[in-house]
């Protein structure tokens, strides 16, 4: 009687990999560091709360940029244009038409996503430095429109008197209340990015990041998914722009200039491109670091630049990658 291999050999039992405590520490360390900075700002209040609040707004903006650049491996220098649409949309609707914050924010977000669709459909067919130059032109054009369209944007004079964020009839006028709300928004953004990264959509983005030709061979609609990534990034940028104008109470073209793009790129690479926590920790470090060198006065910019260079040298994958170096291999 012949015996099949299955009757002779015992069945292999798969043992789940045990995650080491150091791996848990590596995953939790950047979030704990960010929580410590935000917690300190909540306790102290005042100027530290304002600085950290602006950092959290940038964290939302950079998280959207991270979807397009980190998950999909595309390059965009024009995300500030969509932040401007969201910011000016909220400012105009609330100051001139007496809208509340939430409907004005949603209207600005819808306008930004619509503009991203119109712009991105033909633009995203470009590749490499051609795409970079095209997106840079988008940001410059948006800035010029904000300057020249004075009947709507008031030009360099800007729009003042933007009301604070209103939630269920309660205005967030104090710095601690605003910081708490921004913390919730950042956590919701990070959760959304993490879900996108692990979803089928995120796997399609990863395929595009690896090789567009290989992704196309696997049946992935490259143009469609690049456009979806661009729309998601535009939505987060618009949301951050709306938050900014309502927290500050004022908006002008300088807010959404090329400096915003350079700063967001710095935050993305310092924190760790392609990671969920990278934009958060990068925004906090780049925003808080200059304040630590303020006592140096004339040498403040020199110390700040040297610190950023050292961070990029010793943490080429960003601070999130530096924390991940604590991880060890999984044991079978």
Short structural summary:
The chain is 72% helix and 2% strand. It is mostly helical. It has a domain at 44-257.
Describe this protein's structure:
There is one protein chain. This protein is mainly α and about 325 residues long. It has a domain of about 210 residues. The protein contains 15 helices and 4 strands. The strands form 2 sheets. The protein has a two-stranded antiparallel sheet. The protein has a two-stranded antiparallel sheet with strand order 2-3. Helix 2 runs antiparallel to helix 3, helix 2 packs antiparallel against helix 8 and helix 3 runs antiparallel to helix 11. About 40% of the residues are buried. The N terminus and C terminus are likely disordered. It comes from Azospirillum doebereinerae. InterPro entries: ABC_transp_permease, LivM-like. GO terms for molecular function: branched-chain amino acid transmembrane transporter activity.
How many DSSP E strands?
4
What is the helix content?
over 70%
Strand line-up of the largest beta sheet: 1-4
Our measurement of the CA-to-CA distance between the termini, rounded to an integer number of angstroms, reads 37 Å
**Helix and strand sequence:** HHHHHHHEEEHHHHEHHHH
Rounded to an integer, what's the Rg over CA atoms?
22 Å
- Average pLDDT score: 87
Return the structural class.
Answer: mainly alpha
Strand content: under 5%
Poorly predicted residue ranges: 1-17, 328-332
Shape: globular
- Biggest β-sheet description: 2 strands, antiparallel
Helix count?
Answer: 15
